[in-house]
Design brief:
With about 450 residues, the chain is mostly helical. The protein has three domains: about 110 residues, no CATH class; about 100 residues, no CATH class; about 190 residues, no CATH class. The protein has a two-stranded antiparallel ribbon. Helix 1 packs antiparallel against helix 2, helix 1 crosses helix 4 and helix 3 crosses helix 6. The longest helix has about 30 residues. It binds iron/sulfur cluster (2 copies).
């Protein structure tokens, strides 16, 4: 008897929140909140947690709204008691339904996907919050839905949050993460460049601001140095690295997906140059990129010339992918050419996400080394149990190791929790980037 009653209260709680959103003029938020209880039909654990979160946050919102209404009535000398009782009842009912959804009976009822319910619910909530904040703060309509149907951005937020939850669930299995990662990454890159193409064809809605920038990662550092401003991409890159370390270069960069695809066209051969020389190559590229941008600025070189130079650098990089990466089966562009990759690797050292090898169970079979396209697992690296600096936490080696000897690590967290936390962040960011990353 309790379960039908509580589920009815949960649905009513969502519908009341939807009605409140409609009263505020947010028709799409109203539709999204009204649709949320439909997720409960899936019987998935994550749906239960998301609904519980919405109801508990909704109860807080009712307290706030109720106090506002009561103050208003008091100010006009009107009766307030009946209103306070009604809103108090709604608050308690929402809270009761939310807390019931967190309990044991609800756990039994929503038994599907129990092992990934927490990462999925967190990825959903994180993507929704990040997108909602970005949408509210942006000076232009950030989400495509808002551009074509003003106000409908909440429906896109719902869709992207569901995508984040699905990714978090799929990434939980190392072998599936290994298979899915290049596809998810390629999808993002295709959407990014597809929008750029549509924008160039005159459909301005597909561009971020209408002011074009070159999609060359080196400009994340060189652009602000040359212009003396325009830090948006640099801040986006730095915040991403602070959250997930160098995983920018294995899940989120619009160009890296090309190098990944090219490297998968050829047989995987041993890296022809040592890690030390690759590091020198990238360090030189980083110094030349930043120093070159500063020199161009000090010499007063005009913007058009700088754009041609940057385009040449970007096109040469595509050449590296097509010739070297394809032939060697490793990501030569990202591990030996692109300066931003090195910046990501170095900054990534500041945060504690790592991949580690359990030397007790590792048989030195080399399967992980063959799976690593970032040339981060030489026999010496395996002996030390630590991938080289070029590791981007892509996780391919973890999914490939037949002895379960490779793991994500974060100090203080058990291995499964470290893996779940890292990939939940990556899943949420992948969904957010799909929604907002355009030029
Ligand atoms: S190395 Fe450069 S191109 Fe490759 S993924 Fe990283 S930022 Fe992107
Ligand atoms: S060591 Fe593993 S996680 Fe790091 S880049 Fe290589 S395959 Fe990816």
């Amino acid at each position: 008897m309790t379960a039908p009653l509580m589920l009815t209260l949960a649905v009513l709680g969502h519908l009341l929140l939807a009605a409140h959103a409609l009263r505020q003029g947010e028709w799409a938020l109203c539709a999204a909140l009204a649709a949320l209880p439909l997720l409960l039909l899936t019987r998935r654990g994550a749906a239960r947690l998301v609904a519980a979160l919405a109801l508990v946050l909704g109860a807080l919102l009712w307290v706030d709204a109720g106090l506002g209404f009561v103050r208003l009535r008091l100010a006009f000398g009107q009766d307030w008691l009946r209103l306070a009782l009604i809103i108090g009842g709604v608050t308690l009912a929402s809270l009761a339904a939310g807390l019931w959804l967190l309990g044991r009976r609800a756990q039994e009822l929503f038994h599907k996907g129990r092992e990934v319910e927490f990462p999925q619910a967190v990825a959903f909530a994180l993507a929704a919050v990040l997108l909602a904040v970005a949408r509210a703060k942006a000076s232009v309509p950030l989400l495509l839905a808002d551009r074509f149907l003003p106000g409908s951005g909440w429906l896109e937020i719902l869709a992207l949050s569901l995508y984040a939850a699905w990714l978090a669930g799929a990434f939980a299995d190392p072998a599936r993460h290994k298979r899915l990662r290049p596809r998810v990454w390629a999808l993002f890159s295709a959407v990014f460049f597809g929008q750029l193409l549509l924008g160039l064809l005159g459909l301005q809605d597909f561009l971020m601001t209408g002011r074009l920038h070159l999609p060359v990662p080196a400009l994340i550092a060189a652009g602000p140095i040359f212009r003396g401003g325009g830090l948006f991409m640099a801040i986006l890159f730095a915040s991403t690295v602070l959250l997930v370390g160098p995983a920018w270069c294995s899940h989120l960069c619009y160009i890296g997906a090309w190098d990944d695809a090219c490297s998968r066209l050829g047989p995987k051969l041993p890296a022809p140059v040592s890690a030390r020389w690759r590091l020198w190559g990238r360090a030189t590229a980083l110094v030349l990129t930043c120093g070159g941008a500063l020199a161009l600025r000090l010499l007063g070189v005009d913007a058009l010339t700088a754009v041609w130079l940057a385009a040449g650098f970007g096109l040469a990089g595509v050449g590296v992918m097509l010739v070297v990466s394809r032939r060697l089966g490793v990501m030569a562009h990202c591990t030996a050419y692109c300066p931003i990759g090195l910046a990501g690797n170095l900054l990534g050292r500041l945060i504690p996400w790592r991949v580690r090898i359990d030397l007790g169970t590792c048989t030195r079979c080399g399967t992980c080394s063959r799976a690593c396209r970032y040339s981060a697992l030489s026999p010496q690296d395996i002996e030390t149990g630590t991938p080289a600096l070029s590791c981007t936490l892509c996780g391919d080696c973890i999914g490939a190791c037949p002895h379960d000897s490779m793991h994500y690590r974060f100090p203080g967290l058990p291995r499964p929790a470290a893996r779940a936390a890292f990939l939940t962040l990556v899943a949420a960011l992948s969904a957010v980037f799909l929604g907002v990353a355009r030029i």
